[in-house]
Amino acid sequence: MWNPYINERNQSWFDDFYLQGFSNIENYRIGLFFIFLFTYLLTLFGNMIIILVVHLHLHLRKPMYFFITNLSLLEIWYISMTVPKLLAILMTNDKRVSFHWCFVQLYMFHGLGMTECGLLAIMSIDRYMAICNPLRYNSIMNDRMCRHLALLCWIYGFMAATLPLSFTITVPICGLRHIDHYFCDLAPLLNLACMNTSLNNRVNGCVIGFATMFNFIIIIIMYINIICSILKMKTRAGRVKAFSTCSSHITVVMLFYSTAFTVYASPKGLHSVNYDKMFALVYAMFTPLLNPIIYSLRNKEVKVAVKRILNLQKNIV
């Protein structure tokens, strides 16, 4: 017996999707192309500089900077999953994306996003150990422990991303395959389904919600303890120094979670699809750009290391 759902499901493996992107601002395509290209290249350069600086300077071989290099590597990968296709759409107006690449992009984007949640939580634990247990910090946060914690974040993120992928790729797709976004995300893809996707939405929401909130709760608990320890310090200079080691991490956490919660946790009736796209741009493009800026401009050790590299290049020339 012929089943239209199976027919659509089989057909969808061979058909392209069409990313609508920012269709309401077609007149500004070329201008946006150069803005986004500049942002992309600056992000790659900034994060590569962070990785290079930490690798070349022995005094930066500390747990905090090890996790920062992991975060920089993740940001390079993260922004490279969405921006090149967006640039291609803006330049050539070719909005097609293959079925298989669309779901690869979906999996990688959410895998990297949940890995970043884990890394931010581990970095808060690192700051907690450095401030609240300074005498045991080096023995506990040794090289082996740091590598294992970082590996755990990567495994955790990509394993968690398999559930949303599985519950989305099996959905039968009917009609026009026009995705109202500039990359393949869960909600725009499920909007194309010709079946009730309430179960899929609940499963996706539970997985992403747990992955983000579990790590966010860890961050909050760590910083409650950090603040309590800082307040107990006798000297103002000690309190300022302790807080300065956390300020960059706090800024990145606030930037990442505020934009992610706006898109994924707020009721959809409160804002439009274009509103979602703009906030997606913030956490998918501008957050990876701001992270190396935040960590370099607010960190004296990184600034000194960067100056040394620049002076060395001048001497070579």
Fold and architecture overview:
- This protein has 13 helices and three strands.
- With 317 residues, the chain is an all-alpha fold.
- Helix 2 (29-56) packs across helix 13.
- Mean pLDDT is 82; it is low at 1-14.
Label this structure with key terms.
3-stranded mixed sheet; 3 strands; about 325 residues; mainly alpha
Run of helices and strands = HEHHHEHHHHEHHHHH
Residue ranges: pLDDT <50 for 5 or more in a row? 1-14
Tally the helices: 13
Number of strands: 3
The helix content, as a percent range, equals: over 70%
- Tell me, briefly, the overall form: globular
Which class best fits the helix and strand makeup? mainly alpha
Give the mean pLDDT. Answer: 82
Q: In percent, how much strand structure appears in the residues?
A: under 5%
Rounded radius of gyration (Å): 22 Å
Reported for the largest beta sheet, the result is:
3 strands, mixed
Strand order of the largest sheet: 2-1-3
N/C terminus separation: 75 Å
List the topology elements.
Layout: H1 4-12, E1 17-19, H2 29-56, H3 63-80, H4 83-92, E2 96-97, H5 99-132, H6 134-140, H7 143-160, H8 162-169, E3 178-179, H9 186-190, H10 198-232, H11 236-264, H12 273-297, H13 300-316
Parallel strand pairs: 1-3
Antiparallel strand pairs: 1-2
Helix pairs in contact: 2-3, 2-4, 2-12, 2-13, 3-5, 3-12, 5-6, 5-7, 5-8, 5-10, 5-11, 8-10, 10-11, 11-12
